[in-house]
């Protein structure tokens, strides 16, 4: 996602360059691809929540565990998911 964001910011910079501007159709195509990528990530998050899974190929589970003494009785750990 970081690379995608950087490409989008580069596209924005190219669009604003008055000496050598990017074609509008090309910029629209970049924005459309970015929109589809974001939409697919939203669907993936919804699937993870609905299925109760620990992650997916795109969004890996963070393997760090919270120490047991900080948790209530019967709970052995907490898993946090982060988009990379």
UniProtKB/TrEMBL annotation:
Protein name stated in the entry: Uncharacterized protein
């Amino acid at each position: 996602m970081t690379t995608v964001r950087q490409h989008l910011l580069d596209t924005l910079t190219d669009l604003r360059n008055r000496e050598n501007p990017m074609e509008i159709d090309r910029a629209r195509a970049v924005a459309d691809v970015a929109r589809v990528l974001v939409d697919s990530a939203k669907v993936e998050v919804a699937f993870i929540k609905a299925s109760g899974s620990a992650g997916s190929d795109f969004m890996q589970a963070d393997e760090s565990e919270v120490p047991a003494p900080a948790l209530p009785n019967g709970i052995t750990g907490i898993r946090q998911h982060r988009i990379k």
